[in-house]
Amino acid sequence: MKRLIATSLLGLMAYATPVLSPQGIIVNPVPTELEVQTWVDRDPAGLGNATYFFGDKIRIYTRVNQNAYVYLFSINADGQIDLILPNAYNPSNYLRAGETYSFPEPGARYEFTISGPAGVDQVLAVASRQPLSLAQIADIRSGQMRVQGASNLARALSIVVTPLPDRDWVSHAVRYNVQPRQVVNPQPRPPIYFIPPMPGYWVIWEDRDDTEYSVAYRGGDVEQIFGYYHRDLTSKGWVKVRFKSRKGKKNPAYEAEYRRGGDRLEVRVAPRGAEMIVKLEWGR
To answer: Which of 76, 127, 210, 275 has the maximum number of C-beta atoms within 10 A of its C-beta?
Structure first.
């Protein structure tokens, strides 16, 4: 009797049949509490208006609002599919709620480089409360895809997610433009890392060159000063990708890394004697 009851309950479970969008992306037609977001470093808002040129480096970000297994696929304009997550370097794809993950992560042993053809590329994120089997889609260890083409990937994924209960999976995609690099005469540009000193604080000295800017304040609170630079950077489109703090009365310090497009900016705020030193270092 128990077996019969269990079977009948399973028969009553609801399943969501995926819908294929015109761009070849699977969509769950059932509203879900689970959400996943994905974006690229030149488009923090995920508007789909970023442009990359052949040879550019790209960093991909994702975030879920609930703990979930996340699968990321890159879909080129010509239909070539690459598996971003999981992969041989990041075999674990169970992501924590509210945390932002970047691929490659800072210090990774690999990188993603934009190649042709020109057109519109996409990154597809699929989040699930249960792990999915990609055996028919890709070999995770080698990174070799067993399907190519957006529509073929969507059909294969629809088979994988169909057995899941409704509201247990969700997808999201971001698009970006890929163009050949045009050779132009480089124009000098102002130092993008410059931020005016914090109002209300006594500036003892400033120092700057092509890639660094430092300023020393007469005392001050580490958290307040870091917050001033953080707000200024985020208002200008920078995205914080790494943060580390050391609190306490002795030698407190805040360190963070920001990204905007292909630019990188590191910020460090820490006391040195009676001075509070802020250092901004720019690079690519």
So the answer is: 127
